[in-house]
Amino acid sequence: MAARGALAIVFGIVTVFWPREQIGSPANLNISVSTVDAILLAYLVLSGLLVLLQGLATRTDARMALLGQAVVVIPGVAFLLLADVPGELRAAIAVWAVLHGILELWIWRQNRDERMSSDFLIAGGIHVILGVILLAGTDMNALSVMGFAGAAAMIHGVFYMVGGYSRRSRTQGGAADEAEDVEVDEA
User: N or C, where is the chain less crowded by C-beta within 10 Å?
Assistant: First the structure.
């Protein structure tokens, strides 16, 4: 989960600092659809691989939803490969974001009684909101799509990084506590 968060943060930073083309005045900037397409494709493929690895390593009820998130990447990538205009780019990311968000909310629903399950609620909500914004923004250009996707990735990436690191620390701390309990019992 921390690796997925790190990837999302890197993607968010890339979208902020990617060079833009000036059209007319310095206030009017743009980026080509093919450039945004390539950046989003790279992010979706890497994210899909990380979620697939997380899904295969998970032995909880969340495994099915995680593997579903990996499968949702396939149509997203296919639609991005076909995207030639900003509307197609927007639709591809919007559909992927809504489906991905619904699966995140499913994970939260299954694990809402556990500690730190709110990471999935927040990430799911962010993805669904991203999808709704992109579906509603009928006149968005490629730069706007990349900006909204990058902002959403940065926000949920921070939650994933903190949540993944906290889960790992808790797991390692729990294993150390169990080892200490065994040593005390043996003595």
Answer: C
Cα angle 113-47-65, degrees, rounded to a multiple of 5: 35
Amino acid type, 180: E
DSSP class per residue in 117-145: THHHHHHHHHHHHHHHHHHH-TT--HHHH
Kindly give the confidence (pLDDT) of every residue in the chain, 187 residues in length, as a single tens digit, with 9 standing for 90 and above. Answer: 788 888 999 999 998 888 777 676 666 677 888 889 999 999 999 999 998 998 898 887 788 888 888 899 998 999 999 988 888 999 999 999 999 999 989 988 888 887 677 888 888 999 999 999 999 988 888 888 898 999 999 998 998 888 777 766 766 665 544 444 444 444 4
DSSP-derived secondary structure for 89-109: HHHHHHHHHHHHHHHHHHHHH
Instruction: Count structural domains, the chain.
Output: 1
Strand partners, 21: 30
Q: Is residue 185 part of a domain?
A: no
Q: Could you tell me if 153 and 11 are in contact, meaning their C-beta atoms sit under 8 angstroms apart?
A: yes
Provide the residue range defining the domain that includes 62.
1-18+29-179
The amino acid occupying position 114 is E
